[in-house]
Amino acid sequence: MTVLKGKSVVKGISFGKLSIKNNVSDIYCDVKCKINDTELEVRRYENGKKIAIDRLKKLYDKVFSEVDKESAMIFEVHKMMIEDESYCGSILDLIRNEKVSSEYAVSCISKKMVDKLSEVDDEYIRERIADIKDVSLLLTDCIRGDSHEKCEMNNECIWGASDFTPSQIAEMNGETTKGILIRSGAVNSHACILAKAMNILCVAGLGDLLEEEHNGKDIILDGLSGTVYIEPDITTINRLKRKFKMCKKHYELLNNLKGKENITMDGKKIKLYANIGSISDLDIVKGNDAGGIGLFRSEFLYLRRKNYPSEEEQFNAYKKVLEEMENKEVIIRTLDIGADKKAEYFNLPKEDNPAMGYRAIRICLDRPQIFKQQLRAILRASAFGKVSIMFPMIISVEEFKSAKKVVKEVKRELKENNIPFDKNIKMGVMIETPAAVFISDELAREADFFSIGTNDLTQYSLAVDRQNNKVSDMYDPYHKSILRMIKLVADNAHKHGIWVGICGELATDENLTELFLSLDIDELSMSSPFILGIRKKVRETNVDEIREKVIKKFL
Ligand code: PEP
Ligand code: MG
Q: One of 78, 142, 190, 364 is an active-site residue; which one?
């Protein structure tokens, strides 16, 4: 038995045969095949291009109807890449000038683009490289009239590859695909995002541990721990079968908690909300009985696109979330762009230290046009449900006041134009910098609520980059300094009569639920699949009994 350890992307356990696909980087057709009739070759290329575009249109429609527009957008982007004049022109020039096959020309031009981009050390660019490879693979496939792989991907098994293209994931049959293993560790790639949306079990970041010789072997994929067992021994099979049963039972039991209150044994209530990044998350939010949305990461509406989303587009997205949530509270965090979340059209400068640079509220206050457009969309949507606004990365009272001033201006403009909105819309501060923690008493006088972003608070307090593998062992949200800061923020909030929540990943940690209840945290907001587990923990806790002991233990 061989055990591989990777990163869990989509949780669950499955048993099956592993089928390793060719490395995506092998897509290049390196054989410089000479041709005689260049115009015939050009027609072959144009025909292949047409088939590829048709295939992308179908994929767009499929993902649009089965998942959502945002997930489908990647196929629109790929279509634009295939149609790109400079890309097509270079391919045609190569066919005509060098008398080479269209497959070779496509591969050659795509490889040049990839080589050029590979020099840039940037997560976003790495993902664009995957897009170019995907487009190149599809084009050569369509030129050859090759549909072999597509049929093969419908067989029942667990697929492994260095990377999957979004179209490969989208074409997978959710019934027969028992899981996917990925060598690449880019868990935010389009492939991983689609796997999550389609609920296909997935472990990524396996690197070279996943070898060609594992092809065809029986494996167990443990997506809960990110472990893969190749040719498992009988003890492991039995252990994982038991884990599978427990996992199934656990989810069945948790299902019984739907509709129940988040109340401790001694009657203390807490709000359990969901974090979302797009409308497509709403089914899971409702399926897990979230009491509201505690963090709508609105910047995801701005990513993976060529230009700013219009006010109308944003308004429709916010309105849809509010309507689907049927009057439950929805907290929209304003644009938290920058650092790892980049959109090219923002033309953000390259910075040595982007996590501490030009990002989030700093950009919004510096570019009021963009900020006002988003606020207008949120305020217009506020007429359709219960919405609150939350500002990220705040470090001073002045900053928060400036943000509120812009909201006031937008409100005035809407009023002048008789556009309805919630006049009493609540505005909160995301406490995710040590600065905000230590002035939380002053911020509390200005804010309607606080939500503690422990992900950034941990990185800024411990000076440990949350994206850097090299220091990931030092990224310790249990550090006393973090937990004490949470207490300070909670005390300051309550002293000034406002509520306080936690929307960082720490909210999902069952080992800390007792502490958060003891500190009188009012709300925990998390990825929806964790909600019922935390509800169970809350309902099993007697705060009065454990408070003193727990506070002593952690603080
Ligand atoms: C946080 O920083 O804790 C947070 C919730 O925001 P994000 O992870 O989007 O930075
Ligand atoms: Mg943050």
A: 190
- Pair 139, 48: CB distance under 8 Å: yes
Separation of CA 456 and ligand 1 centre (Å): 6
Gap from CA of 15 to ligand 1 centroid (Å) = 34
Strand duo 330-333 + 7-10: pairing = unpaired
What are the start and end residues of each CATH 1.10.274.10 domain in the chain? 38-146
Superfamily of chain region 273-554: Phosphoenolpyruvate-binding domains (3.20.20.60)
- Is the pLDDT score of 151 beyond 50? no
| Fold assignment, 2-24+150-248 | Glucose Oxidase; domain 1 (3.50.30)
Report the 3 state secondary structure along 421-486.
Answer: CCCCCEEEEEECCHHHHHCHHHHHHHCCEEEECHHHHHHHHHCCCCCCHHHHHHCCCCCHHHHHHH
Rounded Cα gap, residues 303 and 301, in angstroms: 6
Residue 78 annotated as catalytic: no
Specify the domain boundaries for CATH 3.50.30.10 within the chain: 2-24+150-248
CATH number of the 38-146 domain: 1.10.274.10
Annotation says 503 is catalytic: yes
Cα 364 versus chain centre, distance: 22
DSSP per-residue string spanning 100-152: B-HHHHHHHHHHHHHHHHHTS--HHHHHHHHHHHHHHHHHHHHHHT--HHHHH
**Rounded-to-integer distance, Cα 314 and Cα 299, Å:** 11
What does the pLDDT read at residue 410? 98
d(CA 302, CA 336): 10
Quick: pLDDT tens for 391-404: 999 999 999 999 99
Region 163-186 average pLDDT: 80
Chain region(s) in the chain for CATH 3.20.20.60: 273-554
Compute the half-sphere exposure of residue 254: CA atoms within 13 Å on the CB side of its CA: 20
Per-residue pLDDT tens for 466-521?
877 678 778 888 999 999 999 999 999 999 999 999 999 899 889 999 999 999 99
* Threshold 0.85, pTM exceeds: no
List ligand 1's pocket residues with C-beta within 6 A. 295, 297, 336, 432, 453-456, 503-504
Q: Furthest-apart CA pair in the chain: how many Å?
A: 86
The pLDDT of residue 193 is 67
Q: Write the pLDDT tens digit of every residue in 333-391.
A: 999 998 777 788 999 888 989 999 999 999 999 999 999 999 999 999 999 999 999 99
Tell me the CA–centroid distance for residue 106 and ligand 1, in Å: 41
For residues 459 and 355, the answer to whether their CB atoms sit within 8 Å is: yes
pLDDT greater than 80 at residue 32: no
Residue 187: the pLDDT is 65
Residue 355: partners with Cβ closer than 8 Å, 6 or more residues away:
339, 340, 459, 465, 466, 467
